[in-house]
Amino acid sequence: MERLDKQLEEELVKNLIVQNIQEVSGKEWFYSVIHYGNYGDDGVLLDWEERRWMYNKEEVKKVHRYLKRLLREHFRVECLYFTLERHQSSLEKIDEGPHLQYGDERKGKYHSNILISPISDDLLENPHSKLSKLWDEPGRMNIPIHSLQSNEDLIDLKRELINSCLRKCPWVNRYTPSVKTQVLETPEDLWNVGHYSLKDITRLGLDFMEVLDWENSDIQH
User: Fold this and answer.
1) How deeply is 34 buried, as exposed, middle or buried, from its count of CB atoms within 10 A (0-12, 13-18, 19+)?
2) Opening angle at CA 79, ends 18 and 7, nearest 5
3) Residue 98 pLDDT > 80, yes or no?
4) Where exactly are the structural domains of the chain?
5) How far is Cα of residue 120 from the mean position of the Cα atoms in its chain?
6) Are the beta carbons of 70 and 169 closer than 8 angstroms?
7) Could you report the per-residue pLDDT of 69-97, keeping only the tens digit for each?
8) Does the model's pTM come out above 0.85?
9) Residue 133 — very low, low, confident or very high, per pLDDT cuts 50/70/90?
10) What dihedral do alpha carbons 178, 88, 183, 75 form, nearest 10°?
11) Quick one: which of 112, 171, 179, 105 has its CA closest to 139?
12) DSSP designation for 107
């Protein structure tokens, strides 16, 4: 019975959070996933001291604070929601003579999920100076964004600009897999992604404070 009560509580918390996100709905939202790479922009493996922050929740939340400022400055978005997701743990490899053994378990590093509220078309049609500089940044296939063909609804352009903006963060490398953004066109898309971002609450039994970055999310809007 105690476990059932906890499951109901977890689902209630998830539903309340997702409902809060849906209430700030208008046009299309965007969903970005950031994977923090083990390699620098030069393709060289970073030293452990340069990678260890990826395994620390509080350090990743500091990166969220930086990303939030970037998105606010460039797109003046109304709401942002950040969640943390941890990769699968692994066993530390130990060489013993000709044999390979496994020692202590190492918890997986984090990646970040970001829900981004609608971006104004007017802002893109009349960009401020900081935003206009993103058009010169590389987009898909490493082609400058200003040379890419965009649809009339500006959705593809917004997605490219978001990716470019997020890569300006010094802790996000320039490789394409490091940032992926998709558009959420319907309330159902928003609901599904909201629940997916919070899935570790029920899947792993984590407290919602372990998953939702409350400090950097506009949950109180």
Assistant:
1) buried
2) 20
3) no
4) 2-216
5) 21
6) yes
7) 999 999 999 889 898 888 776 655 556 66
8) no
9) very high
10) -50
11) 179
12) P
Please say whether the beta carbons of 112 and 64 come within 8 A: yes
157 contacts 145 by C-beta, under 8 angstroms: yes
* Burial of 120 per CB tally in 10 Å (0-12, 13-18, 19+): middle
For position 64, what pLDDT does the model report?
A: 97
82: Cβ–Cβ under 8 A, 6 or more apart, which residues?
61, 64, 67, 68, 112, 113, 114, 212, 213, 216, 217
| DSSP assigned state of 199 | T
pLDDT mean over 153-170: 93
Distances (CA, A) of 12 to 8, 9, 24, 172: 6, 5, 19, 34
Distances (CA, A) of 37 to 17, 93, 99, 172, 221: 29, 20, 29, 7, 32
